[in-house]
Amino acid sequence: MAATQEKGTISIHTENIFPIIKKFLYSDHEIFLRELVSNAVDATQKLKKLASLGEFTGELGDLKVEVSFDKEKKTITVSDKGIGMTGEEIKKYINQIAFSGATEFVEKFKDKTDAKDIIGKFGLGFYSAFMVSDKVEIVSRSFKVGADEAARWECDGSTEFELTPAEKAERGTDVILHINADSEEFLDEWKLKGILEKYCKFLPVEIKFGTQDKSEEDGVDEEGKPKYKTVKTDRIINNPAPLWAKSPSELKDEDYLNFYKELYPFSEEPLFWIHLNVDYPFNLTGVLYFPKVKNDFEMQKNKIQLYSRQVFITDEVKDVVPDFLMMLHGVLDSPDIPLNVSRSYLQSDANVKKISAHITKKVADKLQEIFKKDRADFEKKWDDINVFVKYGIISDEKFYDKAKDFVLLKNTEGKYATLEEYKEKVSATQTDKDGNLVYIYSSDPGKQDSFIQAAKNKAYDVLVLDGVLDSHFINTLEQKLEKTQLKRVDSETADKLVDKDTKTESVLSTDEQEQVKGIFEKAINNKSFSVAVESLSPDELPVLITLSEFMRRMKDMAKLGGGGYGFMGQMPDNYAVAINGNHSIVQKILKADAEEQKIKLAKQAFDLALLSQNMLTGADLTSFIKRSVELVS
Q1: 457 among the known binding-site residues?
Q2: How far apart are CA 93 and CA 46, in angstroms?
Q3: 446 is in an annotated binding site
Q4: 488 is in an annotated binding site
Q5: CATH (one of 3.10.50.30, 3.30.230.80, 3.40.50.1580, 3.40.640.10) for 243-375
Q6: Is domain 510-632 annotated with CATH 1.20.120.790?
Q7: Is 100 annotated as a binding residue?
Q8: If you placed Cys at 248, which of 146, 233, 275, 397 could pair as Cys (CB 3.0 to 4.6 Å)?
Q9: How many helices (H) and strands (E) does the chain have?
Q10: Does 152 show up as a binding residue in the annotation?
C-alpha cells in the first residue's frame, strides 16, 4: 500500500504539558518567589513607562511591591500597585501558557521606548507558583479608566479555573498562594527573607517584607542630651538603584568601596575595580573587583553574581567569565546572556563568547592603565594580583599579548622589572655559550639561600618564582621568549647554571677522583643519588645535591594536576650529587687514616648538603647531630 501524504499541526494537550511546567521546569522550588516578585516589578515598571509616555495620567503613588505571609492561613501573598488586569486580560495572559505579557508590552511600545527594565520573557514564571501551592488566587484591578470592577481568578493546579468579580479598592494585583503540605517550610519569615535577599536584592522597585524596628531621635532630656524612641518602619529588602546601574562618571571611590561591603560584608577592601558599561554589540553592565589573593591559590569561585535586568540568576559564571578571572568578585548584568526557560542557568552561544572576550580585554586594559599611570602603585599591588595575571598569561593567548608589557618579574632583592627590562638587565652576564639567555630563579629563597649566594658570587641575578602557578608560568615564558631558559638556582652547581664553556682545573688526579667517588658512594649507600666528582670553585660547597630542572618541573606540574604530567608524580626522585673535588674537605677525607673515618667525614659532608635542601629528617637528622658533636669534641 502506498504511503499517504499529509500535512497538519502537532497537537499539544494542556492536561499533559501543565504538570511538566509545574514540576520539572523549575528544579529549585524557591524560584517561585523570584518569579512572582519579578512579575510584580514588571507590572510596576510598565505603569511607570506608560506614565512617562502620557498613556497613564493618574497618580502613581506608593509603588512598593509587598510580600507577606500568614502562617495560620498557610498563604503567601505578593502584591503590587502596577497596571493590574481586567478579567479579559487575566484570561489572555494567565490562561494562555507561554504567552508573555512582557514581550507583548515591549513589542507594542518598541517605537516609543526600549522598555529595557521589563524582566519577563517566556510567559511561564507565574506557573512556578503551583510547585508550592494547592491553590493560587489572583485578585486584580486594572489601571484603565472605567475599569472599576476587579477580577478574581482561582485555580487548584488542574487545567480548570474560575473567574469571578472581586472587591479591590486600588489598582494592581495580589497573587495569593495557598501553600501545600510539602512546602510549609516557606511559611517562615527568615526563609522568605533569605530568598528575597538572594534573588531580589537589586530589583528596580522597592520590595517591602514586613517591618523592622528603627531608632529615632525624640527630643532631649533634662541634661540636653538627645533621647531616642523605637518606631516600626517598612523593611525594604532591596537596593533598587545598585551601583552598576549608574554611570561611572557619577561615582566616587567611596561608592565602589561601600558597594563592595554591601556585597561582601566580611571581606578585606579590594585592590581596585573595573566598571563595565557596554551597549554595543551587546548590553553588559557590572563591576568587577580585584580582591587580595593569597599565594596558595585559594580559588574562591562563585564570588561573581550574574543578574539579568537586576534579577539574580546564578553565581556560577564560568561560561561568561574566563577561568583565570573566576577569583574576581562583583556583579555582571546582561539581558543578552541566553538563559534557559526557567532563567536558572546559562545557555552557551556566540554572545556569551563575545562577552567573555570583552571582559578579558577590559581587565587587561585596566591593568595596563594602572601600570602606565602609577608604576610604583602597580608594583605595590603586584604580589596580590600576580596570580590573576600569570593565570591569564598561561591560559589566554589574547591576554598574554597585552599582559607581556606589564607582567613583572621580582628578584631576591625585591626589585621589579618587565620582561623587556629584565632581558636587558641580565643579557650581559647570563647568556650561555649557545646564545641562550638563562633566567635563574628561586622557589624558596629561605631554603635555597646557599645556592642563591653562590649564584650572586658569579654576578648572577636570581628571580623569586615561589607561587603555586609558577611552574606553569615558567613553561609559558620559555615558549614565548626567544632563546630563553629558566633554571632553578639549585638545579645545577653555580658553575653550570649558565654554561659558558669554561672549565676549572681539578686539583685531584684521576685515581683520586675515583677514590673520592667510591668513598661517597659507600657513605650515601642510596641508588637514588648519582655521585660525580667535579672541578668546581673552592668557594662552592663541598657537596651539592640537585634535581634536574626538567624532572623537578614536571613533578611540580604533576602536583598541580597539569594535563599529561600525572605519571611524573609517581616516578622516584633521582638526585645528582656533585662532589667538589677542589674543596679542602675533600683533601681532608683523602688524608684521613682509617676507612671508617673517611666514610664518616663523607657522610657528614653529604648530610650538610641534604640539610641545605631541607631533605634531612627523622633518624638521619638525629645521627647527623650526634656525629657533629663527635667531630667537634
Answers
A1: no
A2: 15
A3: no
A4: no
A5: 3.30.230.80
A6: yes
A7: yes
A8: 275
A9: 18, 21
A10: no
